[in-house]
Amino acid sequence: MPRINDNYLKLEAGYLFPEIGRRVAAFAESNPEAKLIKLGIGDVTEPLPEACRTAMIRAVNALGKRDSFHGYGPEQGYAWLREAIAENDFAARGCDIDASEIFVSDGSKCDSGNILDILAAGTANRFAVCDPVYPVYVDTNVMAGNTGEAAGGRYAGLVYLPMTAANSFTPAIPDAPVDVVYLCYPNNPTGAVASRETLTQWVDWAKANNTLILFDAAYHAFITDPDIPHSIYEIPGARDCAIEFRSFSKNAGFTGTRCALTVVPKGLTGKDADGNDVALHGLWNRRQSTKFNGVSYIVQRGAEAVYSEEGKAQVAELIAFYLENARLIREALTACGMEVHGGVNAPYVWIKTPAGVSSWDFFDTLINECHVVGTPGSGFGAAGEGYFRISAFNSRENVEEAMKRIAKLKA
Ligand SMILES: Cc1ncc(COP(=O)(O)O)c(C=O)c1O
Q1: Which end of the chain is less packed: N or C, by CB atoms within 10 Å?
Q2: What's the domain range around 73?
Q3: Hey, which of 104, 136, 375 would you mutate to test ligand 1's pocket, going by the most ligand atoms within 8 Å of its Cβ?
Q4: What is the pTM (predicted TM-score) of this model?
Q5: Ligand 1 in contact with 106 (CB < 6 A)?
Q6: What is the number of the ligand 1 atom nearest to the C-alpha of 255?
Q7: How far does the centroid of ligand 1 lie from the alpha carbon of residue 133, in Å?
Q8: 346-363 tens-digit pLDDT
Q9: Based on the domain organization, do 103 and 60 belong to the same domain?
Q10: Per-residue pLDDT tens for 118-150?
Q11: For residue 218, how far is its CA from the centre of ligand 1 (angstroms)?
Q12: Quick one: 118 and 38 in the same domain?
């Protein structure tokens, strides 16, 4: 009889999105006529850029001929894609990242979870997460056995860094020792961004304390303010203390197509049990080569097209479209008298629920009275209680209709 990984039993039963799905299904069953508008899960809605589709079709046709057929590709990604990323995402912003430090993958969700494979499990490392947080960081630590049990929405053993209106959604740098900290900017779920000064403080602190920063830049393409860094590597010293995750999901609509990347600088090290420095790049390379067989040739050609002239213009159009949705949401909810955050350099609008109304109660009110689905802030962590996330990933028609319905709720 196999023994299971008991850590899975520590996971809080209702992972946020399944619980939303359950409530939505129950609502739809008792209200079959209702036209629900889903501004909940952060999935994109607009079609793939034409440049990407054209490149993928060309790639499919190439696979149809013996002399241009591709079987297994390099586990780290094709050199032409890694070079395009190094040049456009990093060199163009003054970041010193070599193509060989970029690992192409099928998603930032998997990479941000899988990275734990190369770090000691149990109590050897102290992990810090922001609260509210992208739930994957927490749950993968639970699965890996890096936490104790949950109580009051928080797991023993993790360091939580609250982000609330009181600190402008900028968490205080921990005063206790931390070995690994997850940072996500632009932030999911709050829509907050980090200034150059804030990121410099994190990098300086991480270097002084030998802390590894796991920097998730999945939403970097939504930054329009020229003073806000897109990459942690825009900060001097970050090569010595940070791994960065990026994705084609939210800029180019690859949520279903699947392509992402992780940067592990070659000089970045951790300690082995004897206290020797070991390069994380080599460990991640080993991990990926053993457990991963690369992203399909077709999808990598599609991702490469994001960096063509047409691809850049089409991605810019997509981003502008979602940011305009975010602006409409912000303005409509502000006009309803709500306290509204985020949604400027990010696709998420983070609102305060009315006084005395919990995040889940607000969810129920919105679905029952407006037929609009959002995401309860408390699902992202204890400090998210009393907040609610509205996503700008939807059609213009749905956003406008949802805002009209919410305005009536207020009236
Ligand atoms: C912060 C953050 N990181 C990563 C991801 C997942 O990205 P991918 O589609 O590349 O797995 C998401 C998706 O919602 C996200 O919000």
Answers
A1: N
A2: 53-307
A3: 136
A4: 0.97
A5: no
A6: 9
A7: 12
A8: 999 999 999 999 999 999
A9: yes
A10: 999 999 999 999 999 999 999 999 999 999 999
A11: 6
A12: no
